[in-house]
Design a protein that fits this description.
CATH topology of one domain: Spore Coat Polysaccharide Biosynthesis Protein SpsA, Chain A
Helix content: 25-40%
CATH architecture of one domain: Alpha-Beta Complex
CATH superfamily of one domain: Spore Coat Polysaccharide Biosynthesis Protein SpsA, Chain A
Length: about 260
């Protein structure tokens, strides 16, 4: 990819010591200007590996949650002048080699958000996604497409790219600090009229790859349904939501849960 845009990769990390190096080594370095890792209270060797790789590191003083981690990731990327921000999990579940394609979708000006879909193409089942997770993904996505009046192959992938304008516009501080943040940010992007594109992305499921268990998945699923219903109610004028409002709190309007760089 040849572009004048500054591409910054953000890695929300929690106990990714065994897979971080694998992920980083497959990154197309000629595309990336900077890699930022935010450690959310890991208890393994994540920070040691990150220092060896020379990454820009920020450390939360405890485990605040996946959503809180992303908020810090995006705030730091914007602070460093990023034009295109790509979130890549350091657990080696998604292919780093697709990053130029993801970034190019944003740099082209056609899309404001790009998603690496596990459902398009071969599909998540080929990569080892448990059948119950696949079924839940399909049901939740169908419901969301109806309530959000949009059409995506899935809303639950963790491989995403954003334009700077998206992250500066959305009231991200109104979102949850846990996994449902992933879903809320897409609902917000749709609310504010941003264009979302998808590419097919193979995904790997193995012991070291981060994954939430059944009970947290149920909590996430309920949060997804709640977000979609909140969106529809706001569209119909039945309730006001700061999450879907221009006056909602944006990044930086709440103190970030972090210590100085690690």
């Amino acid at each position: 990819m040849h572009t004048s845009e500054k591409v910054v990769v953000v890695m929300p990390a929690y106990n990714a010591g065994r897979t971080l190096r694998l992920t980083y080594e497959e990154l197309p370095k000629d595309t990336v200007s900077l890699v930022i890792l935010v450690d959310d209270g890991s208890t393994d060797g994540t920070l040691e590996v990150a220092r060896q790789l020379g990454l820009e590191i920020f450390v939360h003083n405890r485990n605040y949650g996946y959503g809180a981690n992303q908020k810090t990731c995006y705030a730091e990327a914007l602070r460093r002048g990023a034009d295109v921000i790509v979130m890549l999990h350091p657990d080696y579940q998604y292919s780093p080699r697709l990053l130029p394609a993801m970034a190019a979708m944003i740099a082209s000006g056609h899309f404001d958000v790009a998603l690496g879909s596990r459902v398009l193409g071969e599909g998540a089942l080929a990569g080892g996604m448990p059948i119950w997770k696949y079924a839940a993904n399909r049901v939740l996505t169908a419901v969301e497409n109806v309530l959000l009046r949009y059409k995506l192959s899935e809303y639950h992938t963790g491989y995403r790219a954003f334009s700077r304008r998206v992250l500066e516009t959305l009231p991200l501080e109104e979102n949850d600090d846990d996994f449902v943040f992933d879903n809320q940010i897409l609902a917000q992007a749709i609310w504010f009229g941003f264009h979302i594109g998808e590419i097919s992305c193979p995904a790997r499921y193995f012991a070291e790859a981060s994954s939430i268990g059944f009970h947290r998945s149920v909590k996430y699923g309920l949060g997804v349904l709640g977000t979609a219903l909140e969106y529809r109610a706001a569209r119909l004028g039945l309730r006001k939501s700061p999450r879907f409002s221009e006056t909602g709190r944006k990044l930086g309007e709440v103190g970030a849960p972090q210590l100085p760089p690690g």
